[in-house]
């Protein structure tokens, strides 16, 4: 019912890339690879991350102002410590190069780390920001503050009808967009391309990977 943050940035004129997220769909100005395209080729959690990262890196030189990637491997392998360690190590290796680029001022890297199966007392996740003008900072954030923070860092005014707001402590002085707009408007979903497999087949694939139980 709400626009995804990459849809907002694309609508604001920032060419955007989205790979592997749930509930993703085609959007004007954005290149969107939904998670079913990743899982259709994956044999497990570590493999899903490898495929998603490969897709992400293949789009690296195409002039996107915002690129976002969802990596499900650590979640899928949460009940298998040995395999989960391999998933964590693969993500760390992938992030090392991006952290270096951020330190050189080539990009801003935002990492969201959220427990997908939290207990009843958990209401916060972690957001880490790396860029040349700001040493690494990690804060606990509400889920609803994540998208407004990312959009503000990209220079997109935040809509006042959102449930969350930018977390100012994450940004160096003068880099946080403070302007606002009343709303991003209604979400009118473009017609999607035909799904590569039925929804039932898709759900069975997720169960076989251990993502759904």
Radius of gyration: 17 Å
Beta-strand content estimate:
15-25%
- What is the β-strand count? 8
Q: What is the rounded distance between the termini?
A: 26 Å
Mean pLDDT: 86
Number of helices: 7
Biggest beta sheet summary: 3 strands, parallel
Descriptive report:
The protein has 213 residues and is of the alpha/beta class. Helices cover 35% and strands 17% of the residues. The chain contains seven helices and eight strands. Strands 2-1-3 form a three-stranded parallel beta sheet, with helices on both faces. A three-stranded antiparallel beta sheet has the order 4-5-6. It has a two-stranded parallel ribbon with strand order 7-8.
Summarize the entry for a quick read:
It contains seven helices and eight strands, in the order αββααβααβββαββα. It has 213 residues and is an alpha/beta fold.
């Amino acid at each position: 019912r709400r626009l995804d943050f990459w849809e907002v940035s694309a609508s604001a004129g920032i060419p955007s890339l989205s790979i592997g997220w749930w509930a993703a769909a085609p959007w004007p100005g954005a290149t969107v690879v939904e998670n079913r395209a990743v899982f259709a080729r994956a044999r497990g959690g570590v493999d899903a991350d490898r495929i998603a990262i490969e897709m992400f890196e293949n789009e690296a030189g195409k002039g996107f102002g915002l690129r976002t990637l969802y990596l499900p491997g650590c979640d899928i392998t949460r009940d298998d410590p040995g395999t989960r360690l391999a998933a964590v190590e693969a993500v760390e290796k992938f992030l090392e190069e991006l952290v270096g680029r951020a330190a050189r001022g080539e990009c801003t890297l935002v990492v969201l780390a959220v427990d997908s199966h939290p207990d009843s007392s958990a209401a916060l996740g972690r957001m880490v920001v790396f860029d040349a003008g700001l040493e690494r900072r990690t804060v606990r954030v509400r889920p609803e503050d994540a998208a407004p923070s990312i959009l503000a860092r990209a220079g997109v005014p935040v809509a006042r009808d959102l449930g969350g707001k930018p977390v100012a402590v994450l940004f160096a002085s003068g880099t946080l967009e403070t302007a606002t707009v009343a709303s991003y408007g209604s979400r009118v979903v473009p017609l999607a391309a035909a799904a590569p497999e039925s929804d039932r087949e898709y759900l069975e694939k997720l169960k076989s990977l251990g993502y759904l139980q």
